[in-house]
Amino acid sequence: LTESASPLTTSETRLLDHIAGSTDALVALLQELIRFRTPNPPGGNEAQAQEFMAATLADLGMTVDIFDALPGRPNVVGRLEGRGGGRSILFNGHIDVAELQAPDAWSHDPFAGVRRGSRIYGLGASDMKSALTGAIVAIRSLRECGYELAGDVLYESVIGEEAGEPGTRACVERGVRADFAIVGESSKSDDVFVTGVGVFNFSVTLSDALSHHLIQRNELLLQNTEFEGHNCIQKMAEVIIPALLSLEQAWLETKTHPLLPRGYAMLNIFEIEGGGNTFILPRECKLHATAVYLPNDSAELVRGEINEIINAASERDEWLKDHPPVISWQPERHNIQFLPIDTSRTDVGARLLAQCLGQVRRRPVTLAGRAAIMDGGWLEAAGIPTVVFGPGDRRVIHRPDEYVEISDVVTFAQTLALFIARWSGG
Ligand SMILES: [Zn+2]
User: Fold this and answer.
1) pLDDT tens, 98-133?
2) Rounded to the nearest whole angstrom, what is the distance from the C-alpha of residue 252 to the centroid of ligand 1?
3) CB 128 within 8 A of CB 33
4) Ligand 1 centroid to 103 CA: how many Å?
5) Quick check: pTM over 0.85?
């Protein structure tokens, strides 16, 4: 599905030129945002940056709602009211950045926003303070070029994305809605993505009410069927983990999506706890895992499959049959959930955005899929057609010397401004 470019109007050309001419201001704003230290984890450090965002959005003429998504951790939602009768657009971006890992491996101060040649370096340069910046420049340029919009323009600066915390979800629960949403996660300002994968965590616990001494392990060796105990770590390794891995292997064949490469339905076991006493056969073992599911699947169905395979494996095991595993879908720790995005490639907003990008890039743009994990699913679940489009490169995020190409941020701002003008305009 390719969008062909139609010519830009004179005022649209002026708008794009105006943004290209605002590059210094764009760079300065991006550097200022990078200097707010908002790594997450640990999180809880967003308040100052969010006050700055609130003030910046107010300067754009927006009505600003600032409210705690979590205690002391504010979200900021700006609304630029249109004169009525037009379509509304929501930009969503997260103010938190990835955890600072290996600070010594950085060639530049990760919080300085150093400019070198065509790039800005810093934690969050790509993911995604550049998108936050570009969206502000886009909206400001529309005003400066005299655009009067019919539809509302909404801007969300949310907390908590990097740790699966309820920033965007809190906006949805507060009732923020629009006719179309753009989540500014990195696509190099090169692609418009209409998919995202779903994610949830769960835990599986094996336990035995009774204690059995180390020396009784010989009962296991001799396969004494009268013996009531077992080693819970061993059962996890021999029965539960193989069952989960076989399910994941089956998904490789059965779970596909037309826009995604194979193999994105996954199960990752990321933590094991239990045991610890030399003289006791481990009485408890808990496994923590992440399930990644495709946008055309549902968390409920996937949970059903996991439940079924664990129960079936346990039924076949002499000891587990009498000591059934407990599966928790809301684990006490690591309780994370992301919803998938599966916006249609015929969606009118997605197609218009691809067309705008094509005109700015001067080449055809195809709506594509990507197995990204992000906040946009909450918006789509609230009935808002949602796509992913933003500056920055996925390959450089969450690692030392993260950077963004300044030209990508300019392209993003130009495309977004052109889109808003056409979507929410006259
Ligand atoms: Zn991000």
Assistant:
1) 999 999 999 999 999 999 999 999 999 999 999 999
2) 27
3) no
4) 19
5) yes
